Amino acid sequence: INECLTNNGGCDQNCNDNEGSFTCSCRSGFSLQSNGRTCQSNDQCVNSGCQHRCVNTGNSYFCECFNGYTLDSNGRTCNNINECLTNNGGCDQNCNDNEGSFTCSCRSGFSLQSNGRTCQSNDQCVNSGCQHRCVNTGNSYFCECFNGYTLDSNGRTCNNINECLTNNGGCDQNCNDNEGSFTCSCRSGFSLESNGRTCRDTDECPTAGCQHRCVNTFGSFYCQCDTGYSLNGNGRNCDS
User: Fold this and answer.
1) Opening angle at CA 55, ends 52 and 60, nearest 5
2) Where does the pLDDT of residue 2 fall: very low under 50, low under 70, confident under 90, or very high at 90 and above?
3) pLDDT, tens digit (0-9, with 9 covering 90-100), for 165-176
4) pLDDT of 60-81, one tens digit each?
5) 185-197 pLDDT per residue, tens
6) FRET label pair with 99: which of 46, 162, 191, 222, CA 20 to 30 Å apart?
7) Quick check: 176 and 183 in contact, CB under 8 A?
8) What is the pLDDT of residue 48?
């Protein structure tokens, strides 16, 4: 009777028919158990030589590596992956390769954010001592002054610019320096134009108070009297 024809002779894997009997056997990588029928996987990993992890497949095995490593061509050794070589490891600034891993860091003046990759500029202006304005550049800063001032050699203090020292500030007549600015003005007998710099002659005659005649001059005026009159000492009235 060929017992193997019925339910594989009750064998887990191989059924071998013999004259008047039968035996069970197992495929490579498995061992026949004491009941003579069941096959149990052998531990192929015992002498695998895997550096990190061994995965038993019953009749064979394969090696695996921890995260941050790649399997060598010999199928056993694990080599470190330099994550920094690909897209700088996803780091915003500095990528530092470690054995099996990597870390991101930031240049001076920046702080690493909670995501471990992004760098945010520190506020260098907090203790800058700039008198007017501070410009934060991430890893440093510089001071600026308002219009009408120049930065002192100490890099922080702002000194007033006397615009009147250069071309009279562009003023036609008088230049008046103020803190951080300047204004133009005109001498008596002149009026400042709308451009704030040019002075034009003022015709004082309409309000001069001359009794007879008024003669406007550049920047001034004088009174005249009709024939037979003389100008009073006040410069305006005429005496007969």
Assistant:
1) 125
2) very high
3) 999 999 999 999
4) 889 999 999 999 999 999 999 9
5) 999 889 999 999 9
6) 46
7) yes
8) 86
Beta bridge partners of 59: none
User: What type of residue is 72?
Assistant: D
The Cα–Cα gap between 158 and 166 comes to 19
For 192-207, b/e burial (b = at least 16 CB within 10 A) is beeeebbbeebebbee
Question: Sign of torsion, CA 75 81 85 90?
Answer: positive
Picking from 153, 145, 154, 155, the residue whose alpha carbon sits closest to that of residue 180 is 145
Specify the pTM.
0.42
Which domains, from first to last, does the chain contain? 3-41 (2.10.25.10), 84-122 (2.10.25.10), 125-161 (2.10.25.10), 163-202 (2.10.25.10), 203-240 (2.10.25.10)
CA 26, 30, 34 angle in degrees (round to 5)?
70
CA terminus-to-terminus distance, the chain: 171
Q: Is the pLDDT of residue 59 over 80?
A: no
Cα gap 60→46, rounded to integer Å: 11
Q: What is the pLDDT of residue 213?
A: 92
Contacts of 50 (CB under 8 A, 6+ apart): 61, 63, 64, 76
